[in-house]
Design a protein that fits this description.
The complex is a heterodimer of chains A (about 300) and B (about 240).
Chain A lengths: L1 H34 L6 H17 L5 H24 L7 H23 L4 E2 L8 E4 L2 E4 H23 L1 H11 L1 H6 L4 H27 L1 E2 L5 H14 L4 H21 L5 H15 L14
Antiparallel strand pairs in A: 1-4, 2-3
Chain B lengths: L2 E12 L2 E12 L3 E6 L5 H8 L7 E6 L2 E2 L5 H7 L1 E4 L11 H8 L6 H14 L1 H5 L10 H13 L5 E5 L7 H16 L3 E6 L2 H7 L2 E6 L2 E7 H6 L1 H7 L3
Parallel strand pairs in B: 3-8, 3-9, 6-7, 7-8
Antiparallel strand pairs in B: 1-2, 1-4, 4-5, 9-10
Helix pairs in contact in B: 3-6
Chain lengths: ~300, ~240
């Protein structure tokens, strides 16, 4: 009984943590899908999103939903600016140049933020009452419910945009074959910019949600979740949207189980063990087909 | 007949490689013009330069009295030029219907788009049967039809076709070429790049022969098909 109890409880924790990874992983995978860049600055975009949410709540006195929206919009714009200034000039450069630039952008965001907001961690205000619900003998708290609700809503909106709208179809086309998309009259530069905007907005939402969940934010908070989301994206099959969601949730669950049954010290090790395992056994990821090489 | 496309002495480079060394050609309204030549002669490069995927270093490209050299590919479509790329390049992970919708990306006239979709289905009945299917599951011939239908969805004045016969069985090639003639008869001007010189010359009005980045022969398609030089080099004797 005790074992099952702990298991289910850890599953609940794992899914809420995993849905945050999933939000970040979606941006990773979308950006990879369209310009084949592992955007190592993505975790730092998430950190900036958390800070914008923090200031929207503490300085502007907003409640959670407007603060979330403001953070998503501003961070989305930041993502577009980063793409335009740092990555766009390297569109035709060798891939390694743009990868190294991404690492540079990552450091730039981390240490510029540190200059402006100081390295001291901040306490994220408690935006929702500390309530919890008992489902039988299991506990799910208000934050977890909110994280799940917001994540599911955002994913539903993203799915609608990508599957049903004209812009979404253009995004899928450009991500499959940029050159041919241009022959359809699709402005690939605009689509790439938009992809950075959406991906960054999703990361911002994750940042705010993490702030609420863990109550603390700091300028280097993006490093580990950024790497974990990368693992999640690879686990699901990089470039594949449902893969990023599945990868995020699975990673969250595994981490929660490792923390619950072994020790939280091994949590990060578990995540990277998964990365190594995926790369050894099925590099294309759970949802990936065998790598398609374009001729 | 009015000149629709006029290319004057263009030079195109791939990095350091001088791929097109001063090509001039013209396409008149209502014609089928074909560019034939061996692999690597610069046929595809010429088409890709017209459609804006490549930029000429020198020379001019005028389409309907407008200079379009160096205009970006996604804007060229709006001018009325649509390209069926080499190897079809359909969006394999999207449905047949979505591929056709993307062909009409630059348009907003929903009703007319629906009519054109009907027209494409009428021309290619097999596409209608498979419209919900993922494009990647179609056979080679069907994919070629989809690529052509997709290009027609933008209502082009000039249709650029790059090696439509590639990898297809002889019977299918004949079908595709008769469809090209049909498309031309209904008012679309065609510039066709082909390695299958026989087929290309049989439906074209005029032809240009390309050799390593230069035009070596040009003229009436029937006359070229009969000429000793072309027969030897491209028609297998």
């Amino acid at each position: 009984m005790d074992f099952t109890h702990l298991l289910v409880q850890q599953l609940i924790n794992g899914v809420s943590l995993g849905s945050i990874y999933a939000l970040i992983a979606l941006g990773y995978t979308m950006i990879y899908g369209i310009i084949k860049l592992i955007n190592f600055a993505h975790g730092d975009i998430y950190m900036v999103g958390a800070y914008i949410g923090f200031f929207a709540i503490t300085q502007a006195g907003m409640s959670i939903v407007p603060a979330l929206l403001v953070s998503m919009v501003v961070t989305g714009l930041l993502g577009m600016v980063v793409e335009k200034l740092a990555y766009k000039p390297l569109r035709h450069a060798p891939r390694i140049s743009i990868l190294i630039t991404a690492i540079g952008v990552s450091f730039f965001l981390e240490y510029t933020s540190m200059y402006f907001v100081t390295p001291t961690p901040r306490t994220f205000p408690a935006v929702i009452d500390n309530i919890s619900f008992n489902l039988g003998s299991f506990v799910i708290n208000g934050q977890q419910l909110m994280i799940l609700g917001i994540t599911v809503l955002l994913m539903a909106i993203l799915t609608f945009i990508v599957q049903k709208t004209k812009t979404g179809k253009a995004m899928r086309a450009a991500s499959f074959d940029t050159e041919t998309a241009q022959l359809m009259g699709i402005d690939s530069d605009r689509i790439i910019s938009l992809t950075f905007c959406i991906g960054s907005a999703l990361a911002a939402a994750a940042g705010v949600l993490v702030g609420i969940y863990y109550n603390t934010i700091d300028p280097l908070m993006g490093i580990m979740p950024g790497l974990k989301a990368f693992v999640a994206a690879v686990l699901g099959g990089i470039g594949i949207l449902p893969g990023a969601v599945a990868g995020g949730i699975i990673l969250g669950i595994i981490e929660a189980l490792v923390s619950g049954f072994l020790s939280s010290t091994f949590r990060d090790a578990a995540a990277f063990a998964i990365l190594i395992l995926v790369l050894l056994v099925k590099p294309s990821g759970l949802f990936g087909k065998n790598t398609r090489e374009k001729v | 007949m009015e000149t629709m496309l006029k290319i004057d002495n263009i030079h195109v480079y791939y990095g350091a490689i001088h791929a097109i060394k001063g090509i001039s050609l013209e396409v008149k309204q209502g014609e089928i013009v074909t560019l034939i030549g061996a692999n690597g002669a610069g046929k595809s490069t010429t088409l890709r330069t017209i459609s804006g995927l490549l930029k000429p270093k020198e020379g001019s490209i005028r389409f309907m009295e407008k200079d379009i050299a160096g205009v970006k590919a996604h804007q060229i479509v709006k001018e009325g030029i649509s390209q069926v790329p080499e190897g079809r390049r359909i969006f394999a992970e999207m449905s047949v219907l979505e591929n056709l919708e993307l062909g009409a990306f630059i348009r907003n006239d929903k009703d007319a788009i629906r009519e054109d979709m009907e027209m494409v289905f009428h021309r290619f009945p097999r596409l209608e049967e498979r419209k919900e299917q993922l494009a990647g599951t179609l056979s080679g011939g069907e994919q070629q039809m989809l690529a052509m239908g997709r290009a027609l969805m933008s209502r082009p004045k000039l249709l650029l076709l790059d090696e439509p016969s590639m990898g297809l069985a002889p019977l299918l090639i004949r079908e595709i070429f008769s469809i090209i003639q049909d498309i031309n008869k209904t008012g679309t001007t065609v510039l066709l790049v082909e390695q299958n010189a026989n087929m290309a010359l049989s439906i074209a009005h005029r032809a240009y022969v390309l050799e390593t980045g230069r035009i070596t022969l040009s003229g009436d398609a029937k006359e070229l098909a009969a000429s000793e030089e072309v027969r030897k080099a491209y028609l297998g004797g």
